[in-house]
Amino acid sequence: MTKPIRIAQVTNVADALAIRSEVFIEGQGVPANEEVDGQDPECLHWVVSDELGPAATLRVLPKSENLAKIQRVAVLDRARGTGLGTMLMQHVMGELAEMGFTRATLGAQLSALGFYERLGFEVHGPTYLDAGIEHRDMDRSL
User: Fold this and answer.
1) Per-residue pLDDT tens over the stretch 84-116
2) What's the number of CA atoms in the CB half-sphere (13 Å) around residue 7?
3) CA–CA separation, 107 vs 117, rounded Å?
4) Mean pLDDT in the chain?
5) How far, in Å, CA of 122 to CA of 140, rounded?
6) Are strands 44-50 and 6-10 parallel, antiparallel or unpaired?
7) Does the entry feature the keyword ATP-binding, yes or no (predicted)?
8) Cβ partners under 8 Å of residue 45, min gap 6
9) How far is it, in rounded angstroms, from Cα 49 to Cα 134?
10) What DSSP element (H or E) covers 115?
């Protein structure tokens, strides 16, 4: 497991957008207008950096006083399998709990279901397409 240099909530989303662009737009073929959907100003953003710089990101859209929707979880290819994604998720879930959120929800790509299940998320609802990629909704208590 790689040791992160920093996991930080950020207000300048340039690093987050660069990671998301590389992972989703370039890597998975998500149309840019779907990835950059206009909701970033409403969201909370985190970036984790390793010894080479920004490596992973996610955003959280507060849905209600108690419910947080985790979105746009992205880890650069060079950092996959290092544990940075797990560290980022665990860190953010802890911060969300401290902020008073009691539940977290997300839409997981089918290929990532196991990752989220290991973090305590449970699948519910049918499979659906988001940006042409199959997803399932998941949630967990914080």
Assistant:
1) 999 999 999 999 999 999 999 999 999 999 999
2) 20
3) 12
4) 95
5) 6
6) antiparallel
7) no
8) 9, 10, 11, 13, 16, 57, 58, 59, 60
9) 29
10) helix 113-118
- To which CATH superfamily is domain 6-105 assigned? Gcn5-related N-acetyltransferase (GNAT) (3.40.630.30)
Q: What is the pTM of this model?
A: 0.94
Q: Look-up: residue for tokens 């560290």? A: 87
Supply the pLDDT for residue 109: 96
Among all chains, which residue has been given the structure tokens 């959280």? 60
47-78 tens-digit pLDDT: 999 999 999 999 999 999 999 999 999 999 99
In whole angstroms, give the CA distance from residue 61 to residue 5.
25
Per-residue tokens: 17: 């957008």
